[in-house]
Amino acid sequence: MRSTTRRLALLATVLGVLALPATAAARQVLIGSGSSAEQPILNVLFKAYSKLHRSIAFVYTPNGGNAGVKDVQSGRSAFAVNTRPPLPSDSGTTQYKLYLDGLCVAVNPANSLANLSVNTTKNIFLGLSTSWSGIPGSNLSTTIDPIGRNSTAGSYTFFQSAILGGKTQASNVIPQTSDGLVATAIKNDANAIGYVGLAHAGSGSGIKPLTLNGVACNATTIKNETYPLFRYIWGVLPTAHPSVAAERFLDWLRTDHNAGRIIARAGAVPAFNK
After folding, report:
1. Does residue 11 sit within a domain?
2. Fewest CB atoms within 10 A around its CB: which of 43, 220, 236, 238?
3. Other residues' Cβ atoms within 10 Å of the Cβ of residue 75
């Protein structure tokens, strides 16, 4: 009798496991890292893709694009997302363009400044211009408080190349670990100026994006590549033995029509989505 009871209990356990819903089954977790500037866009894309492919889940660390490349090189991440073009130091990775974005130069709304030239922006972040009294269009006469990204960020490297001529930011530039922190610092400091991705400079951000050389930082000027700091966002995979699931996700992100609509709604600019 006891033996029969044990057999029935075992059978019930097995049937219970077989009856588990598909959502409870083990998912393949894709580990990614890289750009914090693109995290708001990526989070929405991760959610949409997981709804389409319920066997896929994502864990993403927004530790900066440069750090993300190193994660892929070391095997810590299956994929990375970066905001600057590939460099010789990115050996062992394969990278391709995903979509477009812009790096917006922004100030606190208390500043009446509306436009900056690329050269004036360069002088501010190299520490050559330190007072708002020397910047035409500003109603301030206080010390400029420049806010930037730290060196793990692809945005830092992009800004260094596109604006600073390869030079390092001045010592008075306060480095932040994410675009969100840059935007918050600008919002809380009337004397601040900084650079953030387009998704962090919208109407609800509490900061004021400037025109650069007279060109606004918006989806139209980024799409037609007239804004001076337009940029492509790059997907990064290991050259040897890339994850098939990660390849499929990045290809969907880059080419799918609905993914393009998500990218646009989230604050970036689709480039290849049909």
Report:
1. no
2. 220
3. 12
Residues 237 and 222 grouped into a single domain: no
Number of independent structural domains in the chain:
2
Q: Helices then strands (H, E): number in the chain?
A: 9, 11
> What is the band of 26 on the pLDDT scale with cuts at 50, 70, 90?
confident
CA 200 – CA 252 distance, rounded (Å): 24
Residue of 113, 110, 126, 136 lying closest to 189 (CA atoms): 110
Q: Which domain holds residue 132?
A: 102-230
- How far is 160 from 212, CA to CA, in rounded Å? 16
Structure tokens at 106: 């922004």
Distance CA 33, CA 163 (A): 26
Q: What is the pTM of this model?
A: 0.86
How much is the average pLDDT of 210-215? 98
d(CA 32, CA 81): 8
Beta-bridge partner residues of 230: 102
The answer on pLDDT for 97 being more than 60 is yes
Contacts made by residues 8-13, CB under 8 angstroms, sequence distance 24+: none
Cα 247 to Cα 233: distance, rounded to the nearest angstrom: 16
**Given the structure tokens 């391709």, which residue do they identify?**
96
CA atoms of 218 and 222, how far apart (whole Å): 6
Helix (H) or strand (E) holding 197: strand 192-197
Beta 145-149 vs 211-212: how paired, if at all? unpaired
CA distance 61 to 207: 25
Domain presence at residue 17:
no
Please state the φ and ψ torsions of residue 62, each to the nearest 5 degrees.
-85, 70
- For 40, phi then psi, to 5°, come to -60, -40
End-to-end CA distance of the chain: 67
